């Protein structure tokens, strides 16, 4: 398997990203290749320091430009053709890259630019209307897949309906959740509530008897086990994601501080428990979020990714590829008619 890594994308690039890629040496087989995209001198020096400069599993793809986190995605793709994100997207296209094709591309850079590059170069899987980013939220009742969290802020009902199918496949194949319960993010549980987009999406999901439809899901119900998969438009999904991250970090900080103020010995005894729980809720452990529906695998990592985030993203990319998730998505969309019954693509 060939995996392309954007070394220059992310708040901690290039050092943390490169380190994460090099640390993946332990999970790469002899048949794997990790294509490191970015400043050639920086990458070459990193390989030398890690003692991997003669390791054929690591390949350098030199670029001279960087798309910054604040750049306008489409404008930046056109203005910076020799950027790491543009080259990454090109390598992800079997049609364009041919013998240089990478089965997975990974970046912690500008999300909008990553999504645009993937869609322009890799295109979409057969039957897919719009790709969506799927993230995993850890909860007391098990992981919950939320789609979309930023790729498609102004979707149509048919897009969200397809997310319910694609995210359901992801939950079943990667997370091992059999016949996942699917819900639609809404401001209330009643079917009559919500925007026209939400109401129509709910109708499409409800009328599909092959979906294990759980109904509307309020924000608080994300964490109580009502659904294993929750679909929403990219704007709301992104807000939910970042709210959950901030709340999780704040709760653990508060617990630690309160325990230390009450009894330092208690805090020291409690520390292993807090660390264990935090690890289960730490997005760095989950690596990246797949862009479901892309014709290939585009793994989008958090902008503040650390080395271990990238290493875990590479592990997840290999798993996604080996489980043939995209083949399962194509098959599932064909079985569900891909949302065509809505007539709204």
TrEMBL record:
Species the sequence originates in: Algisphaera agarilytica
SUPFAM superfamilies listed in its UniProt record: Isocitrate/Isopropylmalate dehydrogenase-like (SSF53659)
Signal peptide: none
Function: Catalyzes the reversible formation of acyl-phosphate (acyl-PO(4)) from acyl-[acyl-carrier-protein] (acyl-ACP). This enzyme utilizes acyl-ACP as fatty acyl donor, but not acyl-CoA.
Intracellular or extracellular location(s): Cytoplasm
UniProt family annotation: Belongs to the PlsX family.
EC number: 2.3.1.274
Primary location group: cytoplasm
InterPro entries with a match to the protein in the record: FA_synthesis, Phospholipid_synth_PlsX-like
GO annotation, cellular component aspect: cytoplasm
Catalyzed reactions per annotation: a fatty acyl-[ACP] + phosphate = an acyl phosphate + holo-[ACP]
GO biological process: fatty acid biosynthetic process; phospholipid biosynthetic process
Superkingdom of source: Bacteria
Name of the molecule in the record: Phosphate acyltransferase
Pathway: Lipid metabolism; phospholipid metabolism
Subunit structure: Homodimer. Probably interacts with PlsY.
Protein keywords: Acyltransferase, Cytoplasm, Lipid biosynthesis, Lipid metabolism, Phospholipid biosynthesis, Phospholipid metabolism, Transferase
Keyword Transport: no
GO molecular function (one): phosphate:acyl-[acyl carrier protein] acyltransferase activity
Top enzyme class: transferase
């Amino acid at each position: 398997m060939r995996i392309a890594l954007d070394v220059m994308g992310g708040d901690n690039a290039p050092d943390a990203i490169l380190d994460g890629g090099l640390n993946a040496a332990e999970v790469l087989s002899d048949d794997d290749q990790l294509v490191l995209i970015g400043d050639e001198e920086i990458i070459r020096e990193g390989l030398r320091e890690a003692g991997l400069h003669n390791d054929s599993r690591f390949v350098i793809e030199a670029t001279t430009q960087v798309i910054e986190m604040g750049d306008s995605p489409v404008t930046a793709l056109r203005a910076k053709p020799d950027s790491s994100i543009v080259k990454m997207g090109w390598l992800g296209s079997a049609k364009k890259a041919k013998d240089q094709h990478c089965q997975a591309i990974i970046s912690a850079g500008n999300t909008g630019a990553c999504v645009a590059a993937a869609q322009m170069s890799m295109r979409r899987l057969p039957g897919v209307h719009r790709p969506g980013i799927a993230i995993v939220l850890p909860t007391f009742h098990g992981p919950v897949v939320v789609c979309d969290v930023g790729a498609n802020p102004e979707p149509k009902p048919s897009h969200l309906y397809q997310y319910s199918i694609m995210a359901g496949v992801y939950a079943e194949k990667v997370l091992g959740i059999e016949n996942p319960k699917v819900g639609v993010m809404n401001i209330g549980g009643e079917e009559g509530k919500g925007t026209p987009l939400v109401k129509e999406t709910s109708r499409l999901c409800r009328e599909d008897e092959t979906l294990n439809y759980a109904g509307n899901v309020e924000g608080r119900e994300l964490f109580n086990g009502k659904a294993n998969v929750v679909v929403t438009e990219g704007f709301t999904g992104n807000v939910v994601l970042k709210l959950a991250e901030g709340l999780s970090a704040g709760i653990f900080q508060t617990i630690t501080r309160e325990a230390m103020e009450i009894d330092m010995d208690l805090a020291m005894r409690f520390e292993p428990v807090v660390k264990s729980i935090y690890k289960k809720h730490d997005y760095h452990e989950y690596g990246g979020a797949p862009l479901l529906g892309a014709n290939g695998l585009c793994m989008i990592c958090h902008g503040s990714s650390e080395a271990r985030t990238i290493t875990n993203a590479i592990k997840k990319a290999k798993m996604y590829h080996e489980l043939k998730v995209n083949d399962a998505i194509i098959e599932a969309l064909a079985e569900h008619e891909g949302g065509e019954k809505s007539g709204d693509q």
